[in-house]
Structure formats: C-alpha cells, structure tokens
C-alpha cells in the first residue's frame, strides 16, 4: 500500500511520541527500540546516527558504574574475521569504540534500557578472593540464609586444580558480612588487595566426591557430585550447612546404571521435586568412564523415589533453573565446549526453554538464547522472571522473551553464580570470586531455605 510523505511523517511522529509517553509512565521502557526500527522499515523514515532517543533519556539515570552498548555500532563491521581468528572462545568481543580496559572500567553494560532498573542507582562489583592458578571458585554457589554464608566448590578435573582422579574438588564458603565490608572498603578507595575476604574450606563428612552443582534443599544443601573413576558413581548428596557438615547420598543410579557426570540441579518452586542434568564432563576431563546413558535431564520425586527422564536431545546439558512461577524450565547446553577435547563451534552454546506441564513433565522446547561468548553455564532467575547465565565474559541477562538486557562484565568466564538475598550476588569466575550489589532480587524456593 502506497503512503504519502505526510503519512510517513505522521507515523514517525506517532511512534516517537508513543515512545516518549511510555518513558514518562514507565521508568524503563522495554521493546521501544524494536518498535522504532520496525516502524522505520514500514514507513520509510531514517533512524538517527546517535543513541536511540529512549537511551538518551536514560543517560542521566544510568549509574556511573554502567555504560550503554549500542548494538547498531557493530551490526555492519568493516572487517569480520574468519572463525579461525575469532569465534567467541579465545577472548570476548570488543565493540567498536571500546577497549577491554574501558569495558572493565564500567562493568555494568546496558544493552536494553530495562537493565537500568535491575541495576539500581549504585551497583557495585568487588573482587573478594583470588587464586593464582587453581580454579577454586567454580560452581555449586549456594546461599545459606540461616548463617548468611555462601558455599561454592573448586573445579573438578581442571589440571591446575589437580582434582578429578587424584583427589576430589573441595567445598568452601565465605561470610556475606565479610563480602559487604569488602565492598564498603572498595567504595572508600581501597586497593584490590584490601578487599579480599577469608575463604574457609568445608570438610563434608563423608566427603562429597567432586561436587559441581548445588541448591538449597529442605534447609540443607543438595550437591550434584560427578563421581571419581569407575568405582565411585556420580550422585546427589545432601549436606548439613552446619558443622560437622554431615552428608547422605540420596540418589546414585538409574535402575542400577551409573550416571555419567551429574552437573547441575534445581528444585521446582511448586512441586518441590528435584530436576538435574547428567552430562559428559567427567569423561571429557578424564576422571569418569565412557558414558552408559544418554545426556539427559532427570526428575526425582523424594516422597516416592520415582526417577524419570524429562528431556534429552542435548549435546552437553549443563545448567538448569525454573521461572519463579515454575511454568518454564531453562536448560543450558554447553555442547560447543568439549573440555580437554577442545571446541566444536557448530555445537550448541544455547539456553533452551521448556513449558512445564502441571504433571511436572517438559514440552515445547524452544531456543531461548544463543551465547556470543563461549557457552552458558549456570542459569538462574530473578523474581521478575529475567534469566541470568554465567558466560565467557561474565553474567549475561535476558528478559523472559529472550531479549539481551545487559551484562555484568568480567572479561573472563563466570562458570556460575547465585543471588544471596535481596540485591546481592556471588559470582564464581574460576580463579576469582566476586561480590555484586544491584537492585534485582533473586528468585528462591522459600520452602527449601
């Protein structure tokens, strides 16, 4: 249908006015950029070369620790290197006009204006522990509300850790009061060496063997242990978060068959059933035998002992979480990363979303997000249903529709993380541990705390 110049101008004005009206009534407007671009294509008006108008209007409210990343600046690059030179695994992408240093200087990256509300007026990122080479800060990040501590584990199978077959990865913890005090010291101008906190080793009894995933479970902590060699199977262990940290094995087989390498787990917020992923990383890191089962997602019902498969068809399933209302499940597939065997760039680096039926089964798998930096590992939601994932450049955040909202940029891999009460987050980055403050509140399963 033909349109006149006046029609196009009126349409453009209408779109702009609609965007401005939305900004006046909502502190952060989601999706206006997409609407503006669609209207420009339909009605033939040109977009400005500066930041989109709604991002300009947000400039004053963007905290000094944050910066806008305008994706239009790299939609068409003068040179795009071949996969042999850049493939999203060796180093994070640096947008035009930025350097690694400038990206790290203001580490909260705004890709969509709604990210500003999740950050709040004064977000902070503080490094609170560091290891020279040993990846002590890996996964199984669990907040113990009663003690206000956060537990986490060492990388199992990493050469610099010496774990896997020779010894088990260890469990550790830090005090959140110590982390908050470290953040206060940084705000006051302290150097990085003066923001480190005490990291305590947790001696579980009996020992949890090569733990990787962890969640709150009936007031305790449930770990996914990867196992060791042929004779110590992969298992779910429950541990008391108080000394002497006594443990019990809850599940260690599927009808007499060993799991391959249990990775991550989550409790459904309504049914309280446990869902967990089984993958190949123990085998790919040479401390578990060749697999005897498919790579799958399982569901365990504590009251009956029923253990069922709810999803398969993955390359390497990894992180798993639910939306706060339990209606959606998110499962990350880190298939691109084959551990000691390198990368296959055509394999998934993907988060999939499933509908969760009232009976607890999964259906309607869809691609939720494909990651630009290495792979998505641990995944979690906030109370608004936004999805956060540990990726090769830090924490990436999407809204429930899969729109990238922003990043908590580390410039290095964040394997996993966890909210620790309102406005607090602990991030495990292998040889570094971070404490984040922001406005977002993590979704928890209250019955499990």
From TrEMBL:
Residue stretches in coiled coil = none
SUPFAM superfamilies, per the entry? Calcium-dependent phosphotriesterase (SSF63829)
Pfam families in the record: SGL
The organism's superkingdom is given as Eukaryota
Domain SMP-30/Gluconolactonase/LRE-like region intervals: 256-423
Q: Spell out the protein name for this chain.
A: SMP-30/Gluconolactonase/LRE-like region domain-containing protein
Specify the species.
Answer: Sporothrix eucalyptigena
Lineage of source species:
Eukaryota, Fungi, Dikarya, Ascomycota, Pezizomycotina
